[in-house]
What does this fold into?
Amino acid sequence: MRRLPMKTLTEFMILISITGNIIFSTWLSGAERETITEQQAIMIANQEVKRLGRALDRLEMDVDRTWELFRNRNPRLLEHYPNAAARIRGRMYWAITYGPKDPMIRGGGLTIFVDKETGNILAVIRYE
It folds into this structure.
């Protein structure tokens, strides 16, 4: 039996009887396709932070809220990051934002976008 990619299996569900008749089929909504929990996304993003050589104990982390604040303050924010914009366009993602715990430190933050369906890292924006 040929294995289909998980994305294909999660987007359309079909039940076929032994005789080959279609019994039931449906498109799944975005919420039903979401397979990566917030906690899993945080673990994935934390691994990426470590891979990038950043110290997690010196960073504060936020899921989605900080990213939404950034975007609300500057609706054209993604124009400054065209590669990230292209990678997240049309995707469901977790936006995990990290910033320095020390308020005297400027820059050094980053936002990591984790695909809600696959857990893949879609993009990383670094704020220097």
About this structure: Strands lie at 12-16, 22-27, 59-63, 93-100, 109-115, 121-127. The longest helix spans residues 38-51. The CA atoms of residues 88 and 122 lie 6 Å apart.
